[in-house]
Amino acid sequence: MHPFSAIKPPPLAVGLGLAGLIPFVSAALGLWVTPEAWRERVMEELLNYAAVILAFMGAIHWGLAMRADEASDQAPVQLGLSVIPPLLGWVALSLPIDLALPVFFVAFAGLYFADIWAVNHGLAPVWYPALRKPLSFVVIASLLIAWLATWVNR
């Protein structure tokens, strides 16, 4: 069976994806239990990691564009989708936390829909949404929990 037609994500992709959630979940929860003197540092690391992951996820679309037929209209869309996430992460890092966190969770939500678009156009494997949906949910939930912590801990 061709890997693009498989329905279930490869176990290695699932394991690495779950490992990638550790900084999101631990930082989001850490903001609720960490002594106040450390919270700013925990938030800074969460935002930095979110920006790195947006860049990583954007790079996936760059790779998909490289695989696309150059004559198709899909490659330019994929290239565009590859640069928007890191740019949003970069912009978000320059914003106050109350604005940065919403930019990040909107960026991750938008990226999920870009991934679905890639699957629907045959550019990404059929199994990709089965991997991305739960990972995206946990990332966005973690960012929301972190955002709530900034409001409660004032």
Q: Structural class, from helix and strand content?
A: mainly alpha
- CA gyration radius, whole angstroms: 17 Å
Low-confidence stretches: none
**Quaternary organisation:** single chain
Distance between the termini: 54 Å
| Main beta sheet | none
Helix content: over 70%
User: Can you tell me the number of structural domains?
Assistant: 1
Could you say which overall geometry the principal axes of the C-alpha atoms support?
globular
Instruction: Quote the average pLDDT.
Output: 92
Q: Beta fraction of the residues? A: under 5%
**SSE ordering:** HHHHH
Number of helical stretches of at least 4 residues: 5
Q: Find the count of extended strands (DSSP E, 2+ residues).
A: 0
Please describe what this structure looks like.
Keywords: Membrane, Transmembrane, Transmembrane helix. This protein has helices at 11-33, 36-67, 74-93, 97-120, 128-152. The chain has 154 residues and is mostly helical. The protein has one domain (13-152). The chain is globular. The mean pLDDT is 92.
